Amino acid sequence: MELMTIIESDAELQALFIPVERWLTVLAVRNHSKHTLSAYFAGVSQLALFLRGKQLTWTRCDKRQLAQHISQRLDEDKLALASVQQELSAIRHFYGWLIEEGVARINPTTGYQLKRSPRPLPSIADIDLLTQLLDQPAPDTPEQARLWLRDKAMFELLYSSGLRVGELVALDVNDIDISELRVRVTGKGNKTRLVPIGTKAAAAITRYLPHRHLWVEQLDAALFISEKLGTRLSTRAVQQRLKVAAARAGIAQNLYPHLLRHCFASHMLSGSGDLRAVQEMLGHSDISTTQIYTHVDFAKLTQVYDRAHPRATHSKNNDD
Q1: What does R_g of the chain's alpha carbons equal in angstroms?
Q2: Model pLDDT for residues 275-307, shown as the tens digit of each residue
Q3: Catalytic annotation on 188?
Q4: How far is CA 320 from CA 165, 213, 226, 317, in A?
Q5: How far apart are CA 281 and CA 158, in angstroms?
Q6: Is 35 designated active site?
Q7: In this predicted structure, what is the pLDDT of residue 287?
């Protein structure tokens, strides 16, 4: 039975969800994304169902009940640790709001921690492979050659400025300042930032712009236009075009837009070592998110060390 059907058939469960709906409405007004709202609703809903089964309210949920719920999600529902962590985050935020509203006095998640699963290191492509992608010759047919002008501009910008694919397709023509070599990006939470553009990306965009009018519908301000619809290109279309370009360049590695962002971050940190600057360019609110790229660089250093140092692979038995 679907969750909404269960809620509609249970008056006490409906009462539990009234503050949840109010909370999500507040978050929507604060420009939280639909994805975030959906994830928060899913996480809090599971605790609501648990509390209903125990005949408890939000204010009667303490650390012991929370621990029982989390244990059930892990052991009985076989939910992955990372997914349970997301649910716990939603519950923590919800109780924070309940306290702000004067509905609850205690947040049961305070001091409650799950063992964090290690964050996997992002995949990185080397510079030679990116050169193979970006410097490939244009297709022979005029229409495909024009498409490649657009696609090359997109891929150059993704790698040059470390944009998320959603940020890329949200760009308008006026967001690009070729003369100042910068782009105005609207990121998560509708926060804007200015990010430098490399000269190769600027040149690719300059070559693309005169052809944009061939596809664009009137009054559409989008920078990157769908050749089929005449409107703003979708993130899925960017993913598909990148796969086409990789195949045409003879690249076997799986390429996807976020990989180019990973490459930007890793290569920038490797070349500059300026973690704060890279954090600003990526639009990370928390520097710990950016720090993962220092681990990528250190992993590379470790590989070089293991290959090059004469004593790197010696066993402890050989120590004097």
Answers
A1: 25
A2: 788 888 888 877 777 777 666 665 655 665 666
A3: yes
A4: 54, 73, 67, 8
A5: 12
A6: no
A7: 75
| Domain identity same for 40 and 155 | no
222 bridge partner residues:
172
- Whether 112 is in a domain gets the answer no
The dihedral sign for the CA sequence 71, 73, 77, 80:
negative
Mean pLDDT of 199-228: 92
Question: Would you say the pTM of this structure is higher than 0.85?
Answer: no
- One of 188, 200, 248, 300 is an active-site residue; which one? 188
Q: Which of these is catalytic: 52, 150, 152, 261?
A: 261
- The answer to whether residue 152 is catalytic is no
Check pLDDT > 60 for residue 12. yes
**The domain containing residue 66 runs over which residues?**
3-100
Catalytic status, residue 213 = no
Whether 158 and 281 have beta carbons less than 8 Å apart is answered as no
Confirm whether 43 is domain-assigned: yes
Q: Is residue 141 part of a domain?
A: yes
Residue 118 tokens, joined: 């290690």
- Tell me: do 216 and 169 sit in the same domain: yes
User: What number is the average pLDDT over the span 189-204?
Assistant: 91
Strand order in the sheet with 192-196: 176-177, 182-186, 192-196
Q: At what angle do helices 142-161 and 199-212 cross, to 10 degrees?
A: 140
Catalytic residue among 164, 212, 232, 262: 164
